[in-house]
Amino acid sequence: MSSLPLPVRLLNFGGGALRAVGVETVKLDFDNLLQSARSNTGLSDFGEDDFIAPLQMLLEGLEKEAQLSQLGRMIARTDILRNLENRLGLVDLLRRHPEIEEQPIDKPLFVVGPPRSGTTIFHDLLAMDPDNRVPLSWEACYPLPPPETATYDTDPRIARCQADLDQVDKLIPEFKKMHPMGALRAQECVTMTSVDATSMIWLAQFYVPTYDRWIMDCDMSSAFRWHRRYLQVLQWKCPGVRWALKSPQHMWHLEYVHREYPDALIVQTHRDPVKSVISMSSLANELHGLASDHASLTRVAEHYAEGLARGYNATVDYRKTGRLPESQVVDLYFRDFIADQVGTVRRAYEHFGLALSDEAARAMQAFLDDNPADKFGKHLYQLEDTGLDMDWLRGLFTNYETYFDIPRESFEQ
Fold first, then answer.
1. DSSP state of 68
2. Minimal CA–CA distance to 205: which of 223, 188, 219?
3. φ and ψ of 265, to 5 deg
4. CA end-to-end span of the chain
5. What is the dihedral of CA 241, 263, 103, 254, to 10 degrees?
6. Which of 57, 271, 314, 317 is deepest in the core (most CB within 10 A)?
7. What is the DSSP letter of 299?
8. How many angstroms from the chain centroid is the CA of residue 97?
9. Residue 392: Cβ within 10 Å count
10. Host H or E run for residue 404
11. Is 303 in contact with 209 (CB distance < 8 Å)?
């Protein structure tokens, strides 16, 4: 990415030059990462071995497909090490305190839907309701030691996480137009399933299509066991009334969400799928440009188009089975949400028999007033930039558009 600061470009040039003569200074091999995580923590037990195959597949994709720059290798190694260290710490904590896994997770609220369909802002609004326990970025990234109610708002990990995110803003300032981040903002479930190496967050950061396609169809039983454990650790010393969670990845794996949490309340968001593809591809391409000098919008857009079609079809197939009771799922449309955001949240609450207090509604509106969609500038994107054909895209999404009666949007910015 030519717009990266000069020191980063020099770093990438130097790393590439060393790599060309067979010297690799940032290692992404499996054994080295596991040994480094053990050395850094003083712990050795990773628990069940379900994470091994997907992690090895991810690492292969990072080496063979992602075309990582030196900075990209550093980012990937840092992120993977953090997940491995978190896993070691969680296994150790749960071994010492088995009572943590005895805690119930009752009627968690999940926001499920395609990327760029309003899931993020809906989740942010849920965080404004004190009855909702929402995982914030800082605790999802650094869950150990478990957060405590007394110090939840002053924990030093908040500043640590914010410093991490500030670095991203400095390197790719355009990104906050697409997806504003903050240590105190709601975080997605993909952070939690990363400790099991089964997360779609990696494709958003790096071009690893083989791994991502495998994740779309893999057995997520282990991932959701870890998801539950993560929540149990976070709530152990800082409980709430109910969990409010979110991830577009759940669209591919709605059956596993429901299997792990049979009483889950599902808010499924919907948007013109072509808009979702273009917007998400633009976002991922920006992140890919941070980690590689060979980012390609057309390449990632084609991958997302075909992948999202699989996700749409998976959720249609599961909804058609009737195993998810209508009382536990509500469908919300992007167009309606943008027209009345707090009112749409209220509609979801009413569907589930939940009460939205006046205090929570006011807090939600205050958040919207303080965080307009164009607070950091408008995210501009258009179909022509992707090189994809509209008729081909519409053909991919016919099943989804028909089943949920999705309204199509204008493509004028």
1. B
2. 188
3. -105, 120
4. 25
5. -110
6. 271
7. H
8. 28
9. 10
10. helix 398-404
11. yes
Picking from 190, 197, 191, 192, the residue whose alpha carbon sits closest to that of residue 48 is 197
Q: Please list the pLDDT of the chain residue by residue as tens digits (413 residues).
A: 447 777 777 666 666 665 665 656 788 999 999 999 999 999 999 999 999 999 999 999 999 999 999 889 999 999 999 999 999 999 999 999 999 999 999 999 999 998 878 888 899 999 999 999 999 999 999 999 999 999 999 999 999 999 988 887 777 776 656 667 789 999 999 999 999 999 999 998 999 999 999 999 999 999 999 999 999 999 999 999 999 999 999 999 999 999 999 999 999 999 999 988 988 888 888 889 889 989 999 999 999 999 999 999 999 999 999 999 999 999 999 989 989 999 999 999 999 999 999 999 999 999 999 987 655 445 556 778 888 999 999 999 999 999 999 988 876 54
Q: Which two three-digit tokens encode residue 251?
A: 């669209």
b/e per residue, 78-88, with b = 16+ CB within 10 A?
ebbbbbbbbbb
pTM of the model: 0.91
Cβ atoms < 10 Å from Cβ of 404 = 17
Q: What order of strands is seen across the sheet that includes strand 265-270?
A: 132-133, 242-246, 109-112, 265-270, 329-333
CA angle 197, 102, 148 (to 5 degrees): 75
* 3-class DSSP assignment, residue 106: coil
Q: Is the CB of residue 87 less than 8 Å from the CB of residue 46?
A: yes
Nearest to 189 by CA among 130, 285, 113: 113
| Cβ neighbours for 209, distance < 8 A, ≥ 6 positions apart | 61, 65, 203, 303
The maximal CA–CA distance of the chain, rounded, in angstroms, is 65
Cα separation, 102 vs 106, whole angstroms: 12
Angular region, 295: left φ>0, alpha ψ -120 to 50, beta rest: beta
